[in-house]
Design brief:
7 strands; 7 helices
């Protein structure tokens, strides 16, 4: 793709990135291709190449800054449960996004511990851990005196197990991290998936999915 890179092409991307509120779609190897193109231009050592490299670097800096701002704002909205992760992130940007999510959640938890009653935070953490255990626990029937005893589920246990919600995905979604630092996806449009209630709420609120089962 390096042969397709030019100052005009980079300026076009910059213009589109400025116009769009979301990330524009770039080739997956975009930055690698641009780097190869810049290396070729530097090796030619002509006056024209020098100006092309200088101009391209300025445009690239602006493209990176614009996309960086969009990713930071998207991470903030995702942590708050407003929208799912954005489309169009390159591998380097996806890594940056995931690290931002974890950093923001850690900051939020730290501030909450300073502002709220520690016992309240501990209770919430215990409830969260219990909920996670219920999601992954596979119960086996208890065997006593060579007979199988079916364990009766308590209402609260059944509620925890039924906490998953079936939804139909309305558009392609990349892999994302929820508020408990658990990964979900990627999902394809039309796919029916079962996700935790808080994830379902986020997808429904952002109109990225429609409910299948009753909420």
């Amino acid at each position: 793709m390096a042969e397709l890179i030019s100052c005009e092409y980079l300026n076009l991307i910059k213009t589109e990135e400025r116009k769009s509120e979301t990330l524009t779609k770039l080739p997956e190897n975009f930055f690698k291709s641009v780097n190869s193109w810049l290396t070729q231009k530097r090796s030619s050592q002509t006056k024209k190449s020098y100006y092309e490299v200088t101009s391209a670097q300025e445009v690239l800096d602006e493209i990176i800054n614009i996309r960086q701002k969009k990713i930071v704002m998207a991470a903030l909205r995702t942590v708050r449960g407003i929208v799912p992760p954005p489309h169009g992130m390159l591998p380097e940007e996806q890594k940056f996004f995931d690290e931002l999510i974890i950093l923001m959640k850690n900051y939020r938890d730290t501030m909450r511990e300073k502002m709220f009653d520690p016992s309240q935070i501990v209770e919430e953490k215990i409830d969260e851990i219990k909920s996670r255990i219920e999601e992954i626990k596979v119960e086996k029937p208890e065997i006593k005196n060579e007979s199988v005893e079916i364990k009766q589920e308590k209402p609260e246990e059944k509620k925890a197990k039924d906490d998953g919600i079936e939804v139909k995905i309305l558009k392609d979604l990349p892999k994302f991290v929820d508020e408990y630092e658990k990964y979900h996806g990627p999902f394809n449009a039309g796919q029916i998936v079962k996700v935790p209630r808080h994830v379902a709420d986020m997808l429904l609120k952002s109109k990225s999915a429609t409910p299948i089962s009753n909420l």
